[in-house]
Amino acid sequence: MNGVAIRFCSVSKYSLCGVCRTMERPGFMASLVAGGIAGVSVDLILYPLDTIKTRLQSPQGFNKAGGFRGIYAGVPSAAIGSFPNAAAFFITYEYVKWFLHTDSSSYLMPVKHMLAASAGEVVACLIRVPSEVVKQRAQVSSSSRTFQIFSNILYQEGIRGLYRGYTSTVLREIPFSLVQFPLWESLKALWSWRQDHVVDCWQSAVCGAFAGGFAAVVTTPLDVAKTRIMLAKVGSSTASGNVLSALHGVWRTQGLAGLFAGVFPRTAAISLGGFIFLGAYDQTRSLLLELGRGSP
Asked: Minimal CB count within 10 Å: which of 64, 83, 95, 272?
């Protein structure tokens, strides 16, 4: 699910919101399903922003990549990959948190959450990257159908083609988490201290939106490199997956503006994604738990 919304579910020793407190109680499967549904909701609602961002970052330019036409091109790939991507993240995230068990009062709690989130991103990218490759190529070639693009990748490049950009995606996601999580925890702790009680869900969402937006801005060059690698022609130097080479190529041809292409729709999508994800996650999980209690 492009790593937008799922990052907003973590636990702080300073400020547990209602959604996050539920992660520590029974109902892991409900959390898993709710996270997947919330992830799909975010991806589909904010898909136009993602398409615009991809076309702004495309080497062929925004207008030639499709402009504002066909902004839902490639959406089947996102819809299919979103749920298992979210599930893979949650399974890994919860397992690593359990494996790195520390006392809730320990100062190492934020470190544990960063490590768990990073591990979750590495595993989730095994599902996210093939979906992202197909989706982004469809976004800049709206005349081609999603399945046709998928078939062409397999025919021309094999399985390796579907994982082109895996390293650059991971190198984007981990720094994002390392920037976002400490900032999010600090903002929640400050808000909790100012009001003398733990933050509510909507307050956690506000903090998450600010933290996610800031992290989105500073990691945009890595996102540009990932997009260029995924869209590069077969056999080109960029297609080899060298992140530094891709960044240097963008800097040489477009300068600073090229490195931060698509920063506004990317930041907006990640910030808005936090609100949508937390709302959809909370409502879906509560409904599933209520149905579970009511069933024999």
From this structure: 64
Burial class (CB in 10 A: 0-12, 13-18, 19+), 107: exposed
DSSP 101: -
Distance CA 69, CA 83 (A): 26
Tokens representing 120 are 């979750």
* Segment 122-180, tens digit of pLDDT: 999 999 999 999 999 999 986 778 889 999 999 999 999 999 989 988 988 888 878 87
pLDDT at position 218 is 94
Give the gyration radius of the chain's Cα atoms.
19
Pairwise CA distance, residues 64 & 259, whole Å: 19
Q: Confirm if 234 and 157 have CB atoms less than 8 A apart.
A: yes
**How far is Cα 145 from Cα 127, in angstroms, rounded to an integer?**
20
pLDDT one-digit tens code per residue, 212-224: 899 999 999 999 9
Give the Cα-Cα-Cα angle 165, 168, 174 (nearest 5 degrees).
135
- Residue in 206, 208, 250 with CA at minimum distance from that of residue 228: 250
Q: Is 12 exposed, middle or buried (0-12, 13-18, 19+ CB in 10 A)?
A: buried
CA distance linking residue 171 with residue 186, whole number of Å: 24
Query: 197: alpha, beta or left, given left = phi > 0 and alpha = psi -120 to 50?
Result: beta
* pTM score: 0.75
The CA angle 38-172-46, to the nearest 5 degrees, is 35
Q: Which two tokens stand for residue 283?
A: 């409502």
Question: Do the beta carbons of residue 120 and residue 90 sit within 8 Å?
Answer: yes
With 0-12 / 13-18 / 19 or more C-beta atoms within 10 angstroms meaning exposed / middle / buried, residue 14 is middle
